[in-house]
Write a structure and sequence with these properties.
There is one protein chain. The protein has 2 domains: 163 residues, D-Maltodextrin-Binding Protein, domain 2 (3-Layer(aba) Sandwich), CATH 3.40.190.10; 112 residues, Periplasmic binding protein-like II (D-Maltodextrin-Binding Protein, domain 2, 3-Layer(aba) Sandwich). It is built from 13 helices and 11 strands. α3 runs antiparallel to α11 and α6 crosses α7.
Length: 285
């Protein structure tokens, strides 16, 4: 198909296929300048720069424009269900599977992983450095009523945190439990400023820990804390950018896309921020 034909078909789809235009959604950032446009909702992969790196590599042999909508996993799934975006990258396995089963999401593809760390002050008043599991660490925090920060925003991180409290048999409440309703980096900053505890993803920690002098990793390693990421998109025809989104998922899961994920951050931080899908498959469910 010629470039002109592709452009004409893309313009026609914007006119006849359901879904919103870039003008109707808030793009945190826009990458690329090609005529074929699609939108993607995600949190940390966009915030930490991985998404831009993937789009740049994708566009080395394509001509797309991507609108990144900044949203946690819960909000991203909601945006996909409401046809406000063409695809998402999230870490909420149960909700993802239900979305596919219900028919409003498709092409669920494992793309990589990171893990969660529980960080806190060096003094470790809750003694979570001695914990034997994530549930034990959370029990120690609640038992000592040590200051704990929660995103409280229905993000993948928040969902995992709630599961950890559930595993510990605890409903967190009280002055010690602070809800930020904010994203990962902003919540980490508040935790650092007030010397509390927080469950952060390892990618954000690797990228930001030099700016967090009051915090250190105090607990990690429970298999429960492994965090797998999947990409999902609209069924073809559901939105104007669904076909472009499906092509991007194919790229991200390809050897070239996986190399970008595996190597991202090594030059800047001395360690990769994410693991690839091959590694993540050991923990996928």
């Amino acid at each position: 198909m010629s470039v002109l034909c592709r452009v004409m078909m893309s313009l026609l789809l914007f006119l006849i296929v359901p879904g919103v235009s870039f003008a109707e959604i808030k793009c945190e950032e826009s990458y690329g300048s090609g005529p074929e446009k699609f939108s993607l909702a995600t949190g940390s992969p966009g915030e930490l720069g991985l998404l831009k790196k993937l789009v740049d590599a994708f566009n080395a042999s394509n001509a797309y424009t991507l609108c990144w909508v900044k949203a946690g996993s819960g909000e991203s799934l909601k945006l996909l269900k409401e046809k406000q975006v063409d695809m998402i990258m999230v870490h909420a396995p149960g909700a993802e599977k239900k979305a596919v089963a219900d028919g409003w999401a498709t092409k669920r593809t494992l793309i990589g992983s990171n893990e969660f760390f529980i960080v806190g002050p060096s003094s470790d008043p809750a003694k979570i450095g001695q914990a034997t599991s994530a549930a034990d660490a959370f029990s120690r925090i609640a038992g000592s009523k040590s200051l704990f920060f929660s995103r409280g925003d229905n993000s993948g991180t928040h969902k995992k945190e709630l599961d950890a409290w559930k595993n510990a048999g605890i409903t967190p409440e009280g002055d010690w439990y602070k809800i930020t309703k904010d994203f990962m980096k902003a919540t980490l900053k508040k935790t650092n400023d007030e010397k509390g505890y927080f469950m952060t993803d390892s990618s954000t920690w690797v990228a930001e820990n030099k700016n967090l002098p009051n915090l250190k990793v105090l607990y990690r390693g429970d298999k429960f804390l492994i965090n797998t990421y999947h990409a999902l998109c609209q069924p073809i025809g559901a939105t104007s950018g669904a076909e472009s989104a499906a092509a991007f998922i194919d790229f991200v899961s390809s050897p070239q896309g996986q190399a970008v994920i595996r190597d991202y951050g090594k030059d800047m931080h001395g360690a990769g921020l994410y693991n690839d899908a091959e590694y993540a498959a050991k923990y996928d469910d």
